[in-house]
Amino acid sequence: MPSFPSEEWFQAVQTVYNADSSLHSGGGGACDCVAGFRVGSEYYRIIFQGLECQEVGQSSESDLEDADFIIEMEAATWRSMLEDIQAHGKASSRFTLNSIDMGSEDSIARSPIDDQYRQDLFYRYNQNFQDFFDASSRIESTFK
Fold first, then answer.
1. pLDDT for 37-87, tens place per residue?
2. Higher pLDDT residue, 25 or 123?
3. Coil, strand or helix: which one is 124?
4. Residues 1/143, Cβ–Cβ less than 8 Å
5. Between β-strands 42-49 and 33-39, what pairing exists: parallel, antiparallel or unpaired?
6. CB neighbours of 38 closer than 8 A, spacing ≥ 6?
7. pLDDT digits (tens, 9 = 90+) for 13-25
8. Is the pLDDT of residue 27 over 90?
9. Which domains does the chain have, with CATH numbers?
10. Which of 15, 24, 41, 140 would bridge with 51, disulfide CB 3.0–4.6 Å?
11. Cis ω on the peptide bond leading into residue 112 (within 30° of 0)?
12. 23: which residues sit within 8 A by CB, 6+ positions away?
């Protein structure tokens, strides 16, 4: 059983996400970007291309300089979102990436090189990322 956050957990979600085309409806389906995710003090890199998540892996902040954006949340916020997803099969309205972002004083997404155009890809493809995390409802997870 994979533990969140870990490379193993992201890979398990990637497998579920790529295997189910019903999860590829967000943003018109296609998503092309390099996304970084900060969970507490850990970083992960995910590459979306077309209708699939092509690559996932643990990273460092300095290795994410080519990312279009980095979604940054504290581990407790990630855990609340993922527990909600597991309880409901998908994020309820209070625990979507979009609602968490809108409820935050600052955006949860930032550009590592201060490029607003690339940071805006978070908003353009937001539903794709939500679909990816909603796929975690289909794997048994523990939390660090």
1. 999 999 999 999 999 999 999 999 999 999 999 999 999 999 999 999 999
2. 123
3. helix
4. no
5. antiparallel
6. 61, 70, 71, 72, 73
7. 999 999 999 888 7
8. no
9. 3-139 (3.30.1050.10)
10. 24
11. no
12. 16, 17, 131, 132, 134, 135
Name the amino acid, one letter, at 47. I
| The token pair that represents 6 in the structure block | 């870990």
Q: Parallel, antiparallel, or unpaired for β 33-39 and 109-110?
A: unpaired
Burial class (CB in 10 A: 0-12, 13-18, 19+), 17: buried
In whole angstroms, give the CA distance from residue 77 to residue 28. 28
Tokens standing for 134? 């909603």
Q: Please give the C-alpha separations between residue 117 and each of 68, 71, 113, in angstroms, as whole numbers.
A: 9, 15, 11
